[in-house]
Amino acid sequence: MDTGHINLTFLGCGSMNEAILGGILAGGLPAAQVSATVRRPERAAELRERYDGLTVLAGNEDPEANRTAAAGADVVILGVKPVGVAALLAEIAPVLKPGTVVISVAAAVSLELLEAGLPAGQPVIRSMPNTPSRLGRGVVSLSAGTSAGEEEMALAAELLSSTGRVVQVPEEQVDAVSAVSGSGPAYAFYLAEAMARAGVELGLDPELSAILARDTVAGAGYMLAEPGADATALRRAVSSPNGTTEAAIRSFDEQGLPDVIARGARAAAERAAEITAELSAK
Ligand SMILES: NC(=O)C1=CN([C@@H]2O[C@H](COP(=O)(O)OP(=O)(O)OC[C@H]3O[C@@H](n4cnc5c(N)ncnc54)[C@H](O)[C@@H]3O)[C@@H](O)[C@H]2O)C=CC1
Ligand SMILES: O=C(O)[C@@H]1CCC=N1
Fold first, then answer.
1. 8 A C-beta contact, residue 63 and residue 70
2. 23 labelled binding-site residue
3. What is the DSSP letter of 31?
4. How do the pLDDT tens digits run along the chain, 282 residues long?
5. Burial class of 104 by CB neighbour count within 10 A (0 to 12, 13 to 18, 19+)
6. Is residue 12 within 8 Å of residue 57, measured between CB atoms?
7. Looking at domain 184-268, which CATH architecture does it have?
8. Which residues bind NADP(+) (predicted)?
9. Site to substitute for ligand 2 among 178, 271, 276, most atoms within 8 A of C-beta
């Protein structure tokens, strides 16, 4: 798939869309082919400063920003909060080219809602990325809308491949993907925070403990990223029989930590379903 002449635009460019933008530019798509819209001019200036050659339009000073960016695009990536998606679609629907591929990264926003806000036949893809995309270490799922065929899915996969791994899932699984990999980086950061606090309780200097925790979670992440890595085998390699690690893991198991994590992920998926229901009731 040739992305050589693709014009790509990011509508809304906060944490998630900037992470994708960063990954795609680092992957070699020329900034001249990419644009982004934001609300505040200060945020636009920040992005222009950070990404040389990127066109950034700010809605607060140019009410046509989203329409201008969307009208010229072959692919648009919607990166606003779920509650803002319908209004954004209403804004851009009249100016989109018929073949423009609309990708939404919004959690809980169904393909049905996306398609209802766009002209019939517009190719739409629902995706669930995560923030390590910025480093090319993300994982993103794609689910095809009714008018997104193999060609559009291949184009989206090709564009997003520089952000990390791309998987295809049926839409019914997106909330589960979100609960594992969409929110997942926050779980890993939460673990690092908890480990740092544990070190302080054991008498370490807070700054040192934060460094130990951060570098350890990052180092473990690098090991997991190696080809063929297996989390269970890697964990066992740290755990000497009857040693210190085993004592910690036994304590985690006795306290039901795997269940705690499963219940947390379930809460994330349930919240996604709740937001979907809230949005469809509007
Ligand atoms: N943050 C994450 O790790 C992930 C977020 N997502 C999804 O990504 C979407 C964005 O989330 P975040 O980046 O975290 O939020 P964010 O608040 O950092 O970014 C949203 C951005 O959109 C801008 N914006 C809002 N309305 C706009 C409009 N009409 N025109 C132009 N810009 C507009 C806001 O000013 C803001 O900068 C959400 O729908 C979320 O569900 C999905 C996966 C992971
Ligand atoms: O917290 C959220 O709602 C979004 C979706 C997945 C990660 N962040």
1. no
2. no
3. G
4. 467 789 999 999 999 999 999 999 999 999 999 999 999 999 999 999 999 999 999 999 999 999 999 998 999 999 999 999 999 999 999 999 999 999 999 999 999 999 999 999 999 999 999 999 999 999 999 999 999 999 999 999 999 999 999 999 999 999 999 999 999 999 999 999 999 999 999 999 999 999 999 999 999 999 999 999 999 999 999 999 999 999 999 999 999 999 999 999 999 999 999 999 999 887
5. buried
6. no
7. Orthogonal Bundle (1.10)
8. 11-16
9. 178
pLDDT for the residue 129: 98
Name the fold adopted by 8-173: Rossmann fold (3.40.50)
pTM of the model as a whole: 0.97
For the Cβ of 182 lying below 6 angstroms from any atom of ligand 2, the answer is: yes
Token readout for 232 is: 């269970």
Q: How far apart are CA 250 and CA 186, in angstroms?
A: 24
105: Cβ contacts below 8 Å, ≥ 6 apart: 16, 17, 20, 77, 78, 79, 127, 128, 129
Give 187: exposed, middle or buried? Use CB within 10 Å, 0-12, 13-18, 19+: middle
User: Among positive and negative, which fits the CA dihedral 207, 211, 217, 220?
Assistant: negative
If one residue of 10, 11, 13, 16 were mutated to test the ligand 1 pocket, choosing by the most ligand atoms within 8 A of its CB, it would be: 16
Domain ranges of the chain: 8-173, 184-268
Burial, 250: exposed, middle or buried (Cβ in 10 Å; 0-12, 13-18, 19+)?
exposed
Query: How far, in whole angstroms, is CA 103 from its chain's centroid?
Result: 12
